[in-house]
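Bench log, entry 3. Co-assembly request; chain sequences pasted below exactly as received.
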Amino acid sequence: MEVLNARVGHLSNFEVFEIIKELGSSTVDNLRFTQTEAVKYLSNDNLSTTKQNETGITNLLQSLEQFQTLTRAEKLMIVNLSPKSVVELYVIIEELEDRLSEEDIEAILSLVSTNLGETTNLQNNNNDDNGPTDEPLFVDEDEQENAKYEQEIAEQEELENADVGEEEARGIDEVDD
Amino acid sequence: MFILTELKDTIAVKPSNLNKDLLDSIVDSINYKYSNKIIQDLGLALCLHSLLDSSEGFIQHSNGNVYYKCKFNLIIFRPFVGEILIAKVKSTSEEGITASVGFFDDIFIPIYNLPPITQYDKAESTFFWLANWEEDSDPFTSSPEQRAYIDIGENIRIRIEAEHFENVYPKPKKVAIEESEQDIIPTAYRLTASIDGQGLGVVSWWEEVEEEEEEEEDAQMEE
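Structure output for the full assembly:
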């Protein structure tokens, strides 16, 4: 193994979420573990990853250009965490009060809520109504296997019972003979 | 939180995978080798992002594997120092709190990185935080209502303070059995985090504050 480039770039939570969703169910155990856990984590209510979409993020990043003081890391965290309040923004941006005026803070928060919030999600939903909504991302194969196993047992029991029946029937026939 | 890393490696495709589509078999083999593994000085590999290049397959005389020299991008979990993450409390001990992001559990918040007036409640074996507490008085005289407990399973906002990589070598089996009870196996990659600061800590602490503020503002508006 050789590392050619340790950091090609950063990925936002949304990008990772999309890629992991696209992978579908895999036969590799380790991959299935990371997939399910990552999806579980990224669907956390406190992260807005599931509500985001590509156009929203590009719009947000374009409009954040006007705030020259923001670093790329801070922008990435804004996209990942989508702060809803001043406190949340205060955590993300160091020395918030010195670098940005109150109007700027308000502007950033409103930009975040319009581009990453549920409003864009609603529009998006209206656009493609036929998209799958309630389908689970991953089918728990263990559960399926358990169900199969139970069914097999039930069938076997039935067979056994049937066998007993036949034997008895034969017995009766023999007696009759 | 996630980075993209370009790697070059020789990938072995097992004979059992040869009935698959060529591309699928290479992708699966890369995921089999790297998924959920820690790479030294890189971080925790999640899965393959993109396969960039691959040589023709070649076979060695000793086994049935087909080897491909590949270049590919992996998705790596590697939060940068200073990054803010949302994590869940996994466990607490007197030394501090262990937080988890689901696929990665080795995020430790030592006691000196907790908010200033935080005490360990032995009876509940959890930490509690006292907001607006006078520093002179004993924190244990506080009433249960004043205590904000950091319970297991709660969402906390953390800041990454440091990252540690350690070389972990497998031990000979006999030694491993003898020492297994005394030695704690070090983890190859772990993170130290902090919840000491404005907006950090249990997520709901800060939501409540805002709601109260909003209520106050509303009250003022009505007046």
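Chain A touches chain B through 43 residues (CB under 8 Å). Residues 13-43 of chain A form one domain.
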